[in-house]
Write a structure and sequence with these properties.
By secondary structure, the chain is mainly alpha-helical. It has one domain (4-78). The protein has helices at 4-16, 21-34, 47-62, 69-78; strands spanning 37-38, 44-45. It has a two-stranded antiparallel ribbon with strand order 1-2. The protein is elongated, with a radius of gyration of 20 Å.
Length: 79
């Protein structure tokens, strides 16, 4: 069994050789169905993980655990 990096490279090379538009559309749909999104840190998130992060952020905001821009600037400039 190949490792994940080798598998990715193999799939990429195979996709680059595909000439069939219908197959490419199916691959695109499959990838979109998983709903991978990049986080701010550059990590992949599934749609469910992304939704959970957004819900967590909204909850923090509703709980009033937020900082104004000025508070953030002061905190950063102190360091």
């Amino acid at each position: 069994m190949m490792n994940i990096e080798a598998q990715r490279k193999s799939i990429i090379h195979r996709i680059l050789d595909v000439k069939n538009e219908e197959l490419l559309s199916k691959i695109d749909e499959l990838l979109n169905a998983d709903g991978y999104i990049y986080s701010v840190q550059g990590d992949f998130l599934t749609q469910a993980e992304f939704k959970n992060q957004v819900l967590d952020i909204l909850q923090v905001s509703e709980d009033g655990e937020v900082y104004t821009t000025e508070e953030v600037r002061k905190k950063i400039l102190k360091k």
